[in-house]
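User: hey, got a sec? need ABC transporter ATP-binding protein folded
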Amino acid sequence: METIIDFDTVSYTWPGGKGLQDVRLAVSGGDFVLVSGPSGSGKSTLLRLAARLEEPDSGTVRFAGVPLADLDPPKLRRRIGYIQQTPVVMEGSVRENLLLPYSFAVNREEVPPSDTVLQDWLNRVALARVGLDDVAAALSVGQKQRLCIIRSLLLRPELLLMDEPTSALDRESRHIVEQLTEELNREGMTIILVSHSDYRPQVAHVCVTVKDGRVAQGEGRMTVCDASVEVV
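Assistant: Yep! Here you go:
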């Protein structure tokens, strides 16, 4: 598979002097990449650089061979989905939240999905009892996170970045999100998921460890994560 995103000697400095250093990382299309490491090591920063929410101090991040700096940001947001650790919903109904991306200028030529399609997605993530007219803000944290994931997926991104999406969820919600993520990968979507838990995907995956601002990538794809791969 061709490389979908790569970091070419990328460095990024946080306030105070620390940060990511000399990152070299290549992710192939269709990969499931599990990113782990201690809290504060730079895992979230790695994803934010991939989504161009941060700019590197040096080096280049490329998407499909093109530097992120050369890509139109609104169009890049369509091609790369980004799921935060804490779900963010807007005022209004579940339907209005799901269709929010279609209100943006870059997506106005896209045909919004029907209520049937939206309900099918809700069913897929075990939200069958949630109505499209329900108030989004009244949902539980786990339900809101699943709502945000659906919202990101409706525009069919090529790459999905997930920053500890299950950290605030109960066991049932966490399992549902993990299953969905693995199903999407089996369907061909590239996934980069940051996890601070002992989660091990049930699909072939690549392990990346971030520690002290350094990034190490495991060799090949595996079904059991090799936690020993790290750079100190």
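Quick note: The CA atoms of residues 3 and 119 lie 34 Å apart. Let me know if you need anything else on ABC transporter ATP-binding protein.
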